[in-house]
Amino acid sequence: MSRLVSVGNVVVDLVTNVPALPERGADVLATGSSIAVGGGFNAMVAANRQGLPTAYAGGHGTGYFGDLVRAALADAGIEVLLPPDPARDSGYDVALVDAGGERTFVTVFGAEAELTSAQVAGIHLRPDDLVLVSGYGLLPTTNGGVLDLWLDALAESHTVFLDPGPLVADIDADVWASVWGRADWLSCNESEAATLTGERTAGVAADILARSGNVLVRLGADGCLLGTRGTVEHIPGFSAIAVDTNGAGDAHAGAFLAALAAGLAPRDAAVRANACAAIAVTRRGPATAPTLGEVLDLLG
């Protein structure tokens, strides 16, 4: 059976709910807070809940945050492929979630950003595994040089799914060109698509990206744009009252990959991904993707 193998960065989210983001130098009283494992964890959970076996091939540390990461992975039934780093802890981020459900992050990297070539050489993939790579792991300050070479050496049978993330502009140009050239799918939101193309209109950006490969441009409540073979199609979203958008893009990615692995056509996989993300935003927390049964109920 194929798996989703993620080399994304799993970190701990320190989540704080606020009425609105404070102005510079100001203070604001939180309305709630929580500590949860997030980052690359969210997409793996989403895929797992959609029926796709999942493994984590990223780094994790020794310490309080590393212990939280491993406990969450074990609880979610996600296989861990690499041993912990004995010299450092896992990283974390501070996530501020405003009253409209939008989130703002400050990230502190840890062991997940310190992969070595020897570690990735020890990742053993099955012939039909899907591989998820995040832009956070491609930065010069993280694992860009190591993952670039590893991804380039993967067999054609491995489907590579690339989520560039909000820091895509900071990825080295040569690393980006190499990884995007190997990727079978690129999934990004409107802002990231604009950064990649210089076009502020999502449709125009998707057209440009689709000339180079298969692409998903996520539009929030409006669904997504699906670009295949140079043709872009709008896949409508589902009505939902968002209380927390943290992890919505990850839910979309995990559901899309699980659907592809199950044999669905890209368009049908995008519909399922839109439904998964629509349910996820109605729940507070980063890893709020629904089960396959819940998605199928929404789809009718």
Task: Tell me briefly what this model is.
The protein has 300 residues and is an alpha/beta fold. Helices cover 33% and strands 22% of the residues. It has helices at 41-49, 64-75, 117-121, 144-152, 173-182, 190-197, 202-210, 248-261, 266-280, 292-299, and strands at 4-6, 10-17, 32-39, 54-56, 79-80, 92-97, 103-108, 130-134, 159-163, 185-189, 214-218, 224-228, 231-235.
Descriptive report:
The protein has 300 residues and is of the alpha/beta class. The chain has a single domain, classed as 3-Layer(aba) Sandwich (UDP-N-acetylmuramoyl-L-alanine:D-glutamate ligase), CATH 3.40.1190. 33% of the residues lie in helices and 22% in strands. The strands form 2 sheets. The chain has a 9-stranded mixed beta sheet, sandwiched between helices. α1 packs across α8 and α8 (248-261) packs antiparallel against α9. The protein is globular and about 45 Å long. The protein starts with a strand and ends with a helix. The model has no long low-confidence stretch (mean pLDDT 95).
Relevant terms:
300 residues; alpha/beta; UDP-N-acetylmuramoyl-L-alanine:D-glutamate ligase; 9-stranded mixed sheet; 4-stranded mixed sheet; globular
The quaternary state of the protein chains shown equals single chain
How would you name the CATH homologous superfamily? Ribokinase
User: What's the total helix number?
Assistant: 10
How large is the radius of gyration?
18 Å
Q: Give the termini separation.
A: 27 Å
- Spans with pLDDT under 50 lasting ≥5 residues? none
The CATH topology assignment is: UDP-N-acetylmuramoyl-L-alanine:D-glutamate ligase
Number of domains: 1
Query: Helical residue percent?
Result: 25-40%
CATH class wording: Alpha Beta
Order of helices and strands: EEEHEHEEEHEHEHEHHEEEHHH
Q: What is the average of the pLDDT values?
A: 95
